[in-house]
Amino acid sequence: MGRYLEASCRLCRREGMKLMLKGTRCETGKCAIEKRQRSQAPGQHGWRKGRGSNYAVRLREKQKMKRYYGLMDTQFMRTYELANKGKGDTGKRLLEFLERRLDNVVYKLNFAPSRKAARLLISHGHICLNGRRVDIPSTQVKIGDKITLKNSEKTRKKVKAQLESNPNFAVQGWLQLDVSKPMATVVALPTRDDVQLAVEEQLVVEFCSR
To answer: Looking at 86-172, which runs of residues are DSSP E strands?
Structure first.
C-alpha cells in the first residue's frame, strides 16, 4: 500500500491551511502555518500567489480533502465512485463516507492524536469493532457499531494516556464515548456540519467527474 513519506507540514503549507496532520502539535506555535517565514507554499516559487485556473482551483479542493483524511489518489477515487453510485448530493455523500472511515472515527474519539496515528493503531490490531479485531483503517462504521480496545493492558494504558492528555476534547454528537472503559458507540450518521474541514465539496465532485 502506498504511503506519503515526506514532511507532513509541507502538505499544510501547500494548501495554505491546517490539515491537522500532526494532531495537537498543529495547535501549538511549532506548526509551520503559525510561522510567518514558512507559512507560504513550499518550493522555490512558493511566494507566488494567484487564484489560478478553474482546473487549479478544483484540484486544490480535491487535494485538500484527500490529504486531510490521509488517502492516496486510488483510495480517494474509489470512495468517490462509491458516493457517486448512490442517490442525493454526491459531495455530501463523499464526505459522509470519509467521516465514517474507522481511522477517522478513532481519531475523533481521541483514541489517537492524529489520523495517521489512528491508522497505525488499527493496523496493529489494537481496535475492535463489535467485539472483533479489525486491522483495516478504511472500514466503514454504521449506526449501532461499538468500538472497543483489544484486551491488552498495554493498549488500554496507551489510549487512556491519550484521553487524559486532552481532557477538554469534545466528542461529536454522532458518537457516544464511555471514557471509563473506554468504549464508543456510533449513534447516528455524520452530517455536513460534523466535517471540520473548510472545503467546497461541489468543486471536488466537478473535478472527479470530468
So the answer is: 127-129, 132-133, 146-149
Q: pTM for the whole thing?
A: 0.84
Provide the terminal-to-terminal Cα distance of the chain, rounded to the nearest Å.
26
Domain assignment present for residue 67? The answer is no
- If one counts every other C-beta atom within 10 angstroms of the C-beta of residue 85, the result is 9
Packing angle, helices 54-68 and 73-85, rounded to 10: 100
Per-residue pLDDT of 139-162, as tens digits, reads: 999 999 999 999 999 999 999 999
Q: Which three cell numbers stand for residue 202?
A: 461541489
Q: Is residue 40 part of a domain?
A: no
Picking from 206, 186, 202, 203, the residue whose alpha carbon sits closest to that of residue 194 is: 186
Print the domain residue range for 112.
101-186
Q: How many domains does the chain have?
A: 1
CB 33 within 8 A of CB 13: yes
